[in-house]
């Protein structure tokens, strides 16, 4: 790390702190040459390998943009999408991998989206998993019904 003041090629870390979200580290540094102090923020890089083989940095904005299309006309807010994207990124980072296939990111989106909005989940899954028949939709709906049965019990819960 070059000193921003004198361009000396070395610096000494005098303090390190993890950010509130745990995804970056703030380091306070001091130049041994001029004594200047400066701050750096370090984050781990996360790369996505697209189907075409192109590698690009992970982007929460791309996750939000893709999911937003599936949520069109649904009662899903921008804040909901931001939380979903953060949850997806945290899940991906917990794998410990620095490079993931785009397919793995799609899989990581499906769970949180299913919890957020089942209709948006079906829309996203139909494109992502290439549904090509009514049977594909029926199978996905049957799975949703199995996992979240709706019945005649009045438990005071959400009656969506």
Automatic annotation (TrEMBL):
Biased composition regions of type Basic and acidic residues, renumbered to the chain: 7-20
InterPro entries xref list: ATP-cone_dom, NrdR-like_N, RNR_NrdR-like
Region (Disordered): 1-20
Cofactor (UniProt): Zn(2+)
PROSITE patterns, per the entry: ATP_CONE
Keyword Transferase tagged: no
Stretches annotated zinc finger (unnamed): 3-34
Cofactor: binding details: Binds 1 zinc ion.
Keywords, ordered alphabetically: ATP-binding, DNA-binding, Metal-binding, Nucleotide-binding, Repressor, Transcription, Transcription regulation, Zinc, Zinc-finger
Domain ATP-cone: 46-136
One Pfam family this sequence matches: ATP-cone
UniProt record similarity statement: Belongs to the NrdR family.
HAMAP family associated with the record: NrdR
The protein's role, per its UniProt record: Negatively regulates transcription of bacterial ribonucleotide reductase nrd genes and operons by binding to NrdR-boxes.
Entry protein name: Transcriptional repressor NrdR
Organism from which the protein derives: Microbacterium koreense
Gene name of the record: nrdR
């Amino acid at each position: 790390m070059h000193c921003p003041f004198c361009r000396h090629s070395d610096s000494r870390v005098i303090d390190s702190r993890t950010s509130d979200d745990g995804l970056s580290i703030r380091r306070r540094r001091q130049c041994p040459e001029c004594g200047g102090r400066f701050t750096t923020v370090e984050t781990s890089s996360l790369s996505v390998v697209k189907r075409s083989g192109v590698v690009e940095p992970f982007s929460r904005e791309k996750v939000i943009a893709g999911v937003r299309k599936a949520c069109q006309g649904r009662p899903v807010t921008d804040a909901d999408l931001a939380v979903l994207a953060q949850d997806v990124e945290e899940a991906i980072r917990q794998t410990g991998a620095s490079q993931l296939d785009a397919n793995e990111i799609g899989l990581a989106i499906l769970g949180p989206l299913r919890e957020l909005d089942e209709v948006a989940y079906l829309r996203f899954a139909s494109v992502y998993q290439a549904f090509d028949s009514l049977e594909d939709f029926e199978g996905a709906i049957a799975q949703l019904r199995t996992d979240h049965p709706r019945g005649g019990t009045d438990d005071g819960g959400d009656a969506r």
